[in-house]
Amino acid sequence: MRFTLLQGAVALGVGASFLAIAIPAFLANLSASKLSEPVDNLRRLVDHTLVYGDTHSANETFPPSVPLTPHEVPRGTTVIDPDGTWDHLTWRALDFRMKGAHAFAYEFGSLSDPATGTWRFTATAHGDLDGDGELSTFSVYGEKPRDGATRALPGLYIDRELE
């Protein structure tokens, strides 16, 4: 079967139109899927922190701060952590760990303000999705006033989302 020049041009135009629509949509979905990791994991970490804060005394409202885990932010790839990476007391208290490959490193900070009796926490995810050394940072904040319920403060703070 042979195509005429006109039929070939029409087929090429239809194929090019399809690619012009499909490739940007694919790339947008790929980017969104990479960014769902820190959002989902921070939500999970905040949920566990709120439960922890509401079930512990005012002297121990949140577990202690824990440094970046894993210690190195994955650069342009995903990593599977060696055994023991998430065994810090705080990660265990908050029932938080990465069970599979992930592209972000996480940290948790807590402190109390003795003047007001308010405890505050910060949950942060750092990632370097394209491996260029520039980090995306996602942070969530929360608190427990002396005589109040534990709550997450409104908003997800993002710095260089797509770095």
Keywords:
163 residues; elongated; single chain; six-stranded antiparallel sheet; 6 strands; alpha+beta
Following the backbone from N to C, one meets helices and strands in this order, namely HEHEEEEE
Q: Any idea how many domains?
A: 1
Number of strands: 6
Helix/strand-derived category reads alpha+beta
What sort of overall outline do the alpha carbons produce when their principal axes are compared?
elongated
Radius of gyration (CA) equals 23 Å
Task: Please state the oligomeric state of the protein chains shown.
Answer: single chain
What distance lies between the first and last C-alpha atoms, to the nearest angstrom?
50 Å
Let me know the largest β-sheet: 6 strands, antiparallel
Overall pLDDT score? 85
* Total number of helices: 2
The percent of residues in helical segments reads 25-40%
Question: Would you spell out the secondary-structure blueprint of this structure?
Answer:
Blueprint lengths: L4 H51 L10 E4 L19 H5 L10 E10 L4 E10 L8 E9 L6 E2 L4 E3 L4
Antiparallel strand pairs: 1-2, 2-3, 3-4, 4-5, 4-6
Report on this structure.
- The protein has one domain (37-159).
- Mean pLDDT is 85; it is low at 26-32.
- It has helices spanning 5-55, 89-93; strands at residues 66-69, 104-113, 118-127, 136-144, 151-152, 157-159.
- The N and C termini lie far apart (50 Å).
- 34% of the residues lie in helices and 23% in strands.
- A hairpin with a 4-residue loop joins strand 2 (104-113) and strand 3 (118-127).
- It is built from two helices and six strands, in the order H-E-H-E-E-E-E-E.
- Strands 1, 2, 3, 4, 5 and 6 form a six-stranded antiparallel sheet that branches.
- It is elongated.
- The chain is of the alpha+beta class and 163 residues long.
